[in-house]
Structure formats: structure tokens, C-alpha cells
Amino acid sequence: MNMPFRYLKGFDPWDIIIKNTDTNEEFALKNKYKSICPVCFYPNVSDKPKECHSGIESLESKISFITGHFYETDYEGNPLNWFGDILRKISLQPFKHSHEILKLILNEKISNSDWQIEDIIYATMVPTTNLQMINLFSEISQNINLTWIPYNQLFEKKTSTTFYKDRKDYVNNKYFLLEESVDLLEQIEKGSSLLIFDDVFHQGYTLGRIIELLSKSNFIKFKLVTIARTVPKSFLNTLQFP
Length: 242
Ligand SMILES: [Zn+2]
Hints:
The chain is α/β, with parallel strands linked by helices. The protein has six helices and eleven strands. It has one domain: Rossmann fold (3-Layer(aba) Sandwich). Strands 4, 5, 6, 7, 10 and 11 form a six-stranded parallel sheet that branches. It has a three-stranded antiparallel sheet with strand order 1-2-3, with helices on one face. The protein has a two-stranded antiparallel ribbon with strand order 8-9. Helix 2 crosses helix 3. The protein is globular, with a radius of gyration of 18 Å. The structure holds zinc ion. The site of zinc ion (ZN) has 6 residues, from loops.
């Protein structure tokens, strides 16, 4: 079945313009940031240069990024900024359409990146229970001819009621490498790159943990792709996010 959506190129790689060719309706999002973090693309905040990606700070040399725009919602999930608004508009579309739009956006971002996509063979994702995300990310991997490794063949999630002192401590006690993953990881060619999908990037603690768990494997480079990202709470006082 043909979908009516087209992805139109903007002037800035951060621009997203989706057009419904049946109704001529457009979902458009323009970049509004002048200066961004060279690693994770947060808007630069001069007195807080590192906090934006503190969860992956020690892994910087192994990682490159494609990330979505920042979004903010209130406690009920109502959008408080422009990207929050566009995500809501997308989610109000019939399911097959919203799925298609997210796929278009991520596909375009990956194919327009400066990555040598033909050098990447494998893809996986950060563990989630969100079935739509699992389908979305595995479908994109197939589209670009990557070998999909389901996250539940690599990682296990442990739930605990223990109190943790911070987010890093919590995440480190939540995800572990599955014992059964050893055989699978041994088959990976030495020096390979792994593409990792995630729906939302906060400060990277979960991604940092996932990569740490794979640090003794044959994967040496990690490519991260996320749909959206949140704004660290401490930034809200210093920056107005459009
Ligand atoms: Zn950063």
C-alpha cells in the first residue's frame, strides 16, 4: 500500500518537513538553534558545557549520534514546545500513518548522515516494552539492510525496589548482559559497528550502560539514533526552549 507522505528537504539538516500529498497538509519543523554541542547537539549553555550528555561522557570517542529534537511536555503529556507539538500531531494521525511518518524521519536522518552506512552491519535498540518502537526500529534496520539483533537476545532487565542515589546508579543496576548472549556476540566480526536505536535521549545514562555492557565484545563503534530528546531540568532555568 502506498503512503501519501513525502519527506521534503529543508535548508538545515535539522529541519523536518513532511507533506501529505493527498491533503497537502504539512508537518514542518525548523531548526532554531545557533550553537550546539558538537557531540550530542544540545544547544550550547556556556556555564554547563558537559551536562547535556553526561551519561556517555567517558564513551565519547566510541560514539556518534543522530538525535531528534528536544521536546517538553507537562505531567499529563501535553506538549509545551514546538517539537512536543509536532509529535502530538503525528501521534493523532491514524496509527499506520504516524508509524510511517516516524519511519520517514528516521530513514532520512540516517541516509543524510555522514556515516558510512555500508560499514554498519548490525542494529539493536535500548530495551523497551513499547511494541511500536520495537517494530519501527526493526523495520528501519531491514530497510537499510542491517542485521537486526533483538535487544532481548543481548540484555536483561532486572527490577529492584532498592533505593539508588542517582540515575547512573539506578541504570547500572537495571540492565545486564544476558548469559546466553555470549555465543551471539562471539559471532560478530571484530571491529564492527553497532547501530543502537532509542526512542528518547535524556542524558545518555541508559545508552552509556548498554555500551558499557558491550565493551568487551567485538563491537568497537556505536552509532546512536533517537527520535526525540528531553531537556535536562537544570537547563530549564537558563534556556528558553522554543
Ligand atoms: Zn552534549
